[in-house]
Amino acid sequence: MYTVLISFVVALGGFLLGFDSAVISGVVEPLRGAFELDDLLLGWSVSCLILGAMIGNACAGPLADRFGRKPVLLVTALLFTASAITSAMAQDFWFFVAARVLGGLGVGGAILIAPVYIAEIAPPEKRGRLVSFNQLNIVLGISAAFFSNYFLNERGMSWRWMLGVEAVPAIAYFLLLMAVPRSPRWLASRGRDAEALAVLERVGGRAFADSSLQEIRAHIADKKGPEKKVRFGALFESRMRLIMTIALGLAFFQQITGINAIFYYSPTIFGKAGAAADSALRQAILIGLVNVGFTLLAMYLIDRLGRKPLLLIGSGVMAAALFTNAWAFSTAEYTLDDAVLTSLEKRLPADLAQGLTPVAGKTWTDQGELVLALEESVRALGSESATAALAKEVEGIAKEALVIDGRLVLMAIMAYIAAFAISLGPVMWAMFSEIFPQALRGVAISAAGLFYSLVSFTVTFVFPWELANLGPAVTFFVYGVFAALAFLFTLILIPETKGRSLEDLESMLLKAG
Question: Which one is the CATH code of 2-330+406-512: 3.30.499.10, 3.60.20.10, 1.20.1250.20, 3.90.1150.10?
Fold first, then answer.
């Protein structure tokens, strides 16, 4: 029970990570208006968090190796608190970006160090489930952010409240961490065996503590000790080839399949499928709940079924769901029939409504074609006020003209989220905490985390541009191709790691490299 409680407290960093990542979904459109952002600047406002995470990734591992896992986690709690307060107070776009980057530093530290700490304190037979607490808390944080955004929006509160409320759980996390012990493996690597033994005894009793410490001591006996300098270049030695291929491959596929783009922009995606703003926020809550439910299922299965089967099942279903979404959007049409025109005439300026008459009854298969037709028709009126009104109303007109199976889009996204939640979501972090050698664990997980954040940043940054220029059908199709490649990558290269000690896994993977 002690290990469960400690693991859950440490994993609360994942809650803040998930909240900080997903809360931006509810403020995307208000931010666009508040700071007058185009598609690229909007993408920057969302993805800048990941830029900070990249810096945090690069620093967290070496700092955790030098000062310990617990001090780094305490710093992340302070960074989350500062970011929540300053981003809510931002009056300038670049000040807002700086505040979000500050939170990204916390994300970069928490996302890497929390699962490492849990893996180092957990018994082998429970390690997968306990490390998955981190992923559970991430999805709980995401779901809480969706609920918070909807709740505050319903009460007419501004986007600043949506961002600032995170300071409350961040402060609570800092206080709870004060009661957490240091990692026993880090203590042993520093020659502090008595402290390590005391922690291990609380985890599994005296016999477990004695045998675990003996195994840890034997493992580090041939090393020079804590003063041995860890070289970044050691990650690229031949013996590390398989380990780094697995780590970088999992990091790449977890993000290139679009998970953060869907979480960060879910109301925008549902808006593209015809949902109104409040309905889009409710649908975002629904996918948050699906995420939580299937993450709990993954926690139950990960130490029973294993890591590899979950990855194969999940990536296969993800590919099918993404291809389904691509098909749904590719069959969408835009029609200005009589019912749509009647609805538009009630709320549009009279001269703009008059400009829509020449295109009445026509159908387009692409929003861009619809917009061009509207612009040409309104321009023919020679009315500057109608042209200006069209620029403001074009998204609303397109949404009313859209004919798409919105239910199929929602179901496909829910299937994708469910499949991710039982596979790449928790399994990647579990394997990150398992596969790296003790001597290189800090620098290796920083390198893998940095690459993970780089892919995440790229996907999130270009997503608004992709939607505007390629369309959702092409975007989801590309994500589906990468999910299919993730299935093949798992089938060919991923080993099973359940039930083995960290020291046993190290020996096996280094020999296989």
Answer: 1.20.1250.20
